[in-house]
Specification:
The complex is a heterodimer of chains A (345) and B (397).
Chain A (H helix, E strand, L loop, with lengths): L1 E8 L34 H6 L2 H16 L4 E5 L5 H13 L8 H5 L4 H10 L4 E5 L5 H14 L5 E8 L3 H9 L26 E8 L7 E10 L3 H14 L9 E4 L9 H10 L4 E4 L1 H4 L5 H13 L9 E3 L7 E8 L3 E8 L2
Helix pairs in contact in A: 2-5, 8-9
Chain B lengths: L3 E9 L6 H10 L4 E2 L14 E2 L5 H8 L9 H16 L4 H5 L3 E6 L8 H9 L15 H10 L5 E4 L5 H14 L5 E8 L3 H9 L20 E2 L1 E9 L10 E10 L12 H14 L8 E3 L6 H14 L6 E2 L2 H4 L6 H15 L31 E7 L4 E8 L2
Parallel strand pairs in B: 3-7, 4-5, 4-6, 10-11, 10-12
Antiparallel strand pairs in B: 1-8, 1-9, 2-3, 6-8, 9-13, 12-13
The chains are: A alpha/beta (345), B alpha/beta (397).
């Protein structure tokens, strides 16, 4: 698969500004809010009715759908419109199951962004929503790959969206997955405390089956849940093998270090066991943690193999030589582990 | 590449706790719709539901997981049907553990069934409830993977009421493309205060038993349940009982409205045509349609209108939601099991409660049980909010 075009709304200035030409924003605390554009192209009447995830998905996705003819839409999102969802939930309790309006209920469904994009772009092609926590983006890539193999699509809009909702933020904090201490994002990795910092945004790609002036190639992806360290290494070896890649072909690892002292050891072990000589990049100190964080990583990696310069904050272990092939390894809360290989074209 | 066949089935719904109980209810025209006994909602006594006839405690003891914490009703239902399916297919522990075994499941409400616990966890600073990690979409898939030692591909889909049709579709496509050797596919939803109030706000509940495809239909009855299928390549299924083949599938978006379907039936026609085309069969070869048939004004009109445009003579069609209620994300998988039973036993199930022909159409649904039917190709439709329309073409092997 090839990345023909891409866009990203994130806690960094990735949408309208040149993220690679300026200093990254450094955040304090555990909520990295998206830098949202003005959404000038979305009619105001529609914009007002949209929850944040629908707004970000539309803002990042619609310009791509207008520019490229696509055969379908595949979206990954775990929480969808979680803020709307909790608004509806609170109304049920507050009004003791009285008569409610359905807006928040409909907007709160994870399938709402994919349906909304199809509606706005009058795209009656293939449409699917993967809502699988930390592997949602990898699921989207499998779905897209199959459509290309089957010859049922040549071009697809594929992407992920997640919003920070205050309710889910509190739930994740209670569960121990969010940092309670206030640190700055530039000091995140190796900070030694439990929990991650929460990010949000929408990352969208136009993926094509053929290389027609593509920006980068998505070579392959894979995943495993609840592995042992041996399982994880075995899975990564299989991924390399079936793509004819040697360890030395990987110019850099992009690892999902989230600053969570309970689960960052997976990255250390993985790098030591399989890639002891390879340089390492990080991304969650820029974008924060979301269930579909690997979509941010893929956007980042695609830009880097396409010649953008590496921000110094992203260098975890120095890289030597040209960046042509990047292996992204990311896990979510230590349970779901995913791989994506991005290569220069 | 040979055929993708079904070697195992598991189901739990309002009409039975396993495949054979469901089958018996379908044959005998026994509906599972009535007052809800276990649903915690003020509507439990006001409206009618297709509730599974087991309490959470009964489900837990049946599964032997009484001591496990944080397992929601959604997960309990999924465990029951998953276990039946993998046992039915005779999958070994090694096969379950193989990198080559995928799990794809659909749900909408997921762990949000525990609404009081979510509300407390989201709004107070007390100690976390036992369900704190169970609310988000994907939680039940992770619980299944952990409990059954799965190490392969996992996926959770949410395309509202077509979710599990999409999980069956994607599982079959993965095997066909050589991405895995076998896939356990299906979906689950439990009756929940959240969805009951959601659908109530959309004013699509009937205050009587649902009457799919009837001129005087008033809406749907919400149901709950779970179903899973084990899909394998035919060449790997030697010596196993083969229930049928996942032969065709179509997925399109209606691109019309967030919560209703276009009068032109764009999505419906696209999904059905997609299923027929991938199956390489002509419309006239379809023996029977297991319709989406929710009993709402909008769905039933659009579905029959769409079928009229595809079929010269519309084949016998039914809605088994008149037995189970609308089980949302589980519906596609539950109805796939019913389609496979129809093929296995060469019979067609009734649409219950039907009285009056829809004035817009010449056709009427099948209203009586038919034994000794000739069933070779079954079309199973699932249409969801957000315009998500999917159809499966399930065939006799």
């Amino acid at each position: 698969m090839f990345i023909k075009d891409l866009s990203c709304i994130s806690p960094q200035k990735t949408f309208e500004d040149d993220f690679f030409g300026t200093e990254p924003i450094i955040y304090t605390g555990s909520q990295l809010k998206a830098v949202e554009p003005s959404y000038a192209d979305i009619p105001r009447s529609q914009l007002r009715r949209m929850g944040k995830s629908n707004r970000m998905a539309t803002g990042a996705g619609m310009p791509l759908l207008q520019k490229h003819k696509t055969d379908g839409i595949i979206i990954g999102t775990t929480d969808g419109g979680m803020e709307d969802c909790h608004r509806f939930l609170n109304q049920i309790i507050q009004y003791e199951e009285g008569t409610l309006t359905p807006t928040n209920f409909v907007q709160g469904s994870p399938s709402s962004p994919a349906g909304g994009l199809a509606l706005m772009s009058a795209n009656s092609g293939y449409n699917n929503t993967h809502s699988n926590k930390g592997l949602s983006f990898e699921n989207c890539l499998m779905d897209a790959d199959l459509l290309f193999i089957e010859g049922r699509a040549k071009s697809l809009l594929v992407g992920c969206v997640e919003e920070i909702s205050q309710a889910q933020y509190r739930i994740e904090t209670l569960a121990g997955f969010i940092k309670k201490d206030e640190i700055t994002s530039d000091k995140l990795i190796g900070c030694g405390t439990p929990g991650a910092i929460n990010g949000e945004g929408a990352t969208m790609f136009v993926l094509e089956s053929e290389n027609d002036n593509a920006l980068a190639e998505l070579v392959d992806a894979d995943m495993i849940s609840y592995p042992t360290a041996d399982d994880l290494v075995a899975k990564a070896k299989l991924l390399l093998e079936r793509n004819g890649l040697a360890v030395s072909d990987i110019d850099a690892l992009m690892l999902g270090y989230s600053g969570d002292s309970n689960s960052d050891h997976w990255y250390d072990v993985f790098a030591e066991q399989l890639f002891p000589e390879t340089g390492i990049l990080s991304f969650k100190n820029l974008f924060g943690e979301t269930p579909s964080a690997s979509a941010f990583a893929t956007w980042f990696a695609a830009n880097l193999v396409n010649g953008k310069s590496v921000p110094s904050q992203a260098v975890h272990k120095p890289i030597s030589g040209e960046l042509k092939t990047i292996l992204i390894y990311n896990h979510y809360q230590g349970n779901q582990h995913g791989f994506v290989v991005v290569r220069a074209v | 590449m040979g055929r993708i066949v079904v070697t195992g089935m598991g189901v739990i719904s309002a009409i039975g706790n396993n495949v054979s109980e469901n089958h018996s209810s379908l044959q005998n025209g026994v509906s599972g719709i009535g007052k809800a006994q276990f649903l915690n909602s003020k509507y439990a006594n006001e409206l009618l539901f297709g509730e599974v006839k087991l309490s959470n405690d009964a489900l837990r003891s049946q599964l032997n997981v009484s001591n496990l914490k944080g397992i929601t009703r959604t997960e309990l239902l999924a465990f029951i049907a998953f276990k039946e399916a993998v046992e039915n297919a005779g999958l070994s522990t090694d096969e379950l553990k193989s990198f080559e075994t995928a799990l794809l499941s659909g749900t909408t409400v997921g762990g949000m069934v525990e609404m009081e616990a979510i509300h407390a966890d989201a709004n107070t600073n007390q100690a976390p409830s036992e369900f704190v990690s169970s609310y988000r979409s994907g939680a039940h898939t992770l619980q299944l993977a952990k409990a059954f030692g799965l190490r392969g591909y996992t996926d959770t889909m949410n395309t509202a009421c077509s979710s599990s049709a999409n999980s069956i579709m994607l599982g079959a496509r993965m095997i066909k493309a050589g991405k895995c050797k076998r896939a356990i596919v299906g979906g689950v939803d439990s009756l929940a205060k959240y969805t009951v109030n959601g659908f109530n706000s959309l004013q699509i509940f009937s205050d009587e038993v649902t009457r799919p495809f009837d001129a005087n239909r008033k809406g749907l009855n919400l149901g709950e349940g779970a179903a899973y299928l084990v899909l394998e390549r035919e060449e790997d299924a030697q010596g196993k009982t083969i229930y049928g083949e996942i032969r065709g599938y179509g997925n399109t978006n209606d691109a019309y409205h967030p919560s209703s379907m276009s009068p032109e039936a764009v999505g419906v026609r696209g999904a059905i045509n997609g299923a027929l085309q991938t199956a390489r069969i002509s419309p006239s070869e379809v023996s029977y349609v297991n319709g989406h048939g929710t009993g709402t004004e909008n769905n039933d009109y659009t579905e029959v209108h769409g079928m009229n445009q595809i079929f010269d003579a519309v084949p016998p069609y039914t809605s088994t939601k008149s037995f189970t209620g609308h089980t949302l994300a589980a519906a596609g998988a539950i109805e796939a099991v019913y389609s496979l039973l129809s093929i296995q036993h060469q019979e067609i199930y009734a649409t219950l409660n039907w009285q009056t022909q829809m004035p817009e159409f010449n056709s009427k649904p099948q209203t009586e049980f038919v034994a000794n039917a000739e069933v070779k190709h079954v079309l199973s439709n699932s249409f969801g909010f957000g315009g998500n329309c999917s159809s499966l073409l399930i065939s006799k092997v």
